[in-house]
Amino acid sequence: MIISKSQREITLMKEAGRVLDVVFKTLEDFIKPGVSTSDIDEVVEKVMLDNKCIPAEKGYYDYPAASCVSVNDTLIHGIPSRKIIIQEGDIVSVDIVANYKGYMADACRTYKVGTITERANRLVDVTKQAFFEALKYVRPGSYVGDISHAIQEYVESHGYNVARDYTGHGIGSHMHEDPSIPNYGKAGTGAKLAPNTALCIEPMVLEGKKDTRVLGDGWTVKSKDGKLTAHYENTVIVTEDGYEIITMYEGEN
Ligand code: MF3
Ligand code: CO
What we know:
It is a single chain. This protein is an alpha+beta fold. It has one domain (7-245): Creatinase/methionine aminopeptidase superfamily (Creatine Amidinohydrolase, Alpha-Beta Complex), CATH 3.90.230.10. The protein contains 4 helices and 15 strands. It has helices at residues 7-30, 37-50, 118-135, 144-157, and strands at residues 54-55, 68-71, 74-76, 91-100, 103-112, 161-162, 168-170, 177-181, 198-201, 204-206, 212-214, 221-223, 229-231, 234-238, 243-245. Strands 8-7-9-14-15 form a 5-stranded antiparallel β-sheet. Strands 1, 2, 4 and 5 form a 4-stranded antiparallel β-sheet that branches. Strands 3-12-11 form a 3-stranded antiparallel β-sheet, with no helix packed on it. A hairpin with a 6-residue loop joins strand 7 and strand 8. The longest helix has 24 residues, at 7-30. It is globular and about 45 Å long. The site of 2-amino-4-trifluoromethylsulfanyl-butyric acid has 12 residues, from strand 4.
């Protein structure tokens, strides 16, 4: 069941979203060759705590860190490590969830480190744009399948694949609520969108084949073929006449 949020709940979620935006802007200057993914995680945790938010991923099904930091062929759920050192040319996705007074917002950015290849650049840009293609369908009366279809269509038309085993989702007092929002599907199918619901729309894109594998740590998801991957996500509120993005503010990122 998709649960509509009260104005109070939306206000709290927006504060969580504002803090995610602050974290992302802080990371723009911080992510450089030589820093470890663990260093990135420390910044995420500090900025959240300084802004009265709890990093909701920490402890979620025993996940050990405040953020998921996924480099190059790691699609999602990369566990921050002192041993993973960022290098020039990397693409680094940082997926974070803030909990403000019991309410959450979830978002992800893929950072381009220094000069990157044209190949990597295009993948990151297409992944981000896939989110905005889906956003065109976010309003009351649209279907979840419209979002899924828009993402799949845009991504595949650029010669890439969407992940099949991981989806976007609703959000609120829980990180994952109904509906599930696959990155592939048929327009006009699934649940109908209603005002005051909150959605995490998150294209997860593979440059090569769609298959993924999970490492022995039980979390890290990589492309099976070792090719590049990218991820982009915002939390969006469905309004009376459209949408409001609550995890991205001035100076889009
Ligand atoms: N932020 C992720 C999502 O988009 C969830 C991460 S799993 C966790 O749904 F264990 F790290 F929390
Ligand atoms: Co999410």
